[in-house]
Amino acid sequence: MESQVRGGTRWKRFAVVMVPSVAATAAIGVALAQGALAASFSVSGQSFKVTADKLVGTGFAQYGALDTGYTLDGQKTAHPVAVSSFKKASINNMCQSVVTPDIPLLGSVSLVLKAGGGDKPVEADNLYIDVADLNADATFNNIDIGVAAKDANKGPGMKGNGEQANPYGFAQQADSATLTGVKQTAWATTAGTFKLSGLKMSLKTGTHECY
């Protein structure tokens, strides 16, 4: 399962790396039930799908968190996520899609966004992705597994602003990470700057997703 590659560690499936983070989100859920963590970070009632041919990031950190929000019919909900953060990232051939169902007279409507094709990748600084599911081939350089989230100093730091994450919970970090063949479902993405080269956005009736 594990082999050394160019001074880093390769996992065939990035989901393997996320197993400890899933355990961390379970612990965060218990803490929330005990009133130990703030509950002010919220997301929309829809997840979205993202694909990319390649993501190259420096200053990587990952930790468990809990996103809360509301469903499209106004019911409060919560989603355990693994927050993947990068100080800097470049993304080749990115596709992002979200489907809104049950619109009167139209049915489902899909928003599809594509950028970073050709030789001009998407570029981001202080990028945070709240991931619910992720598959990719991944290589990490100088990875540290099992640090406390608050002590992960290779990445951009925890989000703050009432984020529902235990600062003493499980985290991992690396000097850099390279992901290829990325397919993921996420609840939120934030960045200090996000440069979308060659942006193309379209709205289509029906269900049209990146994968």
Provide a brief overview of the structure.
By secondary structure, the protein is mostly beta strands. Helix content is 9%, strand content 58%. The protein has one helix at residues 14-33; strands spanning 3-5, 8-11, 42-43, 48-70, 76-92, 94-103, 107-115, 122-141, 144-148, 170-190, 193-195, 200-205.
Give the helix/strand layout:
Elements: E1 3-5, E2 8-11, H1 14-33, E3 42-43, E4 48-70, E5 76-92, E6 94-103, E7 107-115, E8 122-141, E9 144-148, E10 170-190, E11 193-195, E12 200-205
Parallel strand pairs: 3-4
Antiparallel strand pairs: 1-2, 2-8, 4-5, 4-6, 4-10, 5-8, 6-7, 7-12, 8-10, 8-11, 9-10
Explain the overall architecture.
With 211 residues, the protein is mainly beta. The chain has one domain. The chain has one helix spanning 14-33, and strands spanning 3-5, 8-11, 42-43, 48-70, 76-92, 94-103, 107-115, 122-141, 144-148, 170-190, 193-195, 200-205. Strands 1, 2, 3, 4, 5, 6, 7, 8, 9, 10, 11 and 12 form a twelve-stranded mixed beta sheet that branches. The longest helix is centred in the first third of the chain and has 20 residues, at 14-33. It starts with a strand and ends in a 6-residue tail after the last strand. Mean pLDDT is 84; it is low at 1-7 and 11-40.
Name the descriptors.
211 residues; mainly beta; twelve-stranded mixed sheet; 1 helix; globular; disordered N terminus; DUF6230; signal; DUF6230 family protein
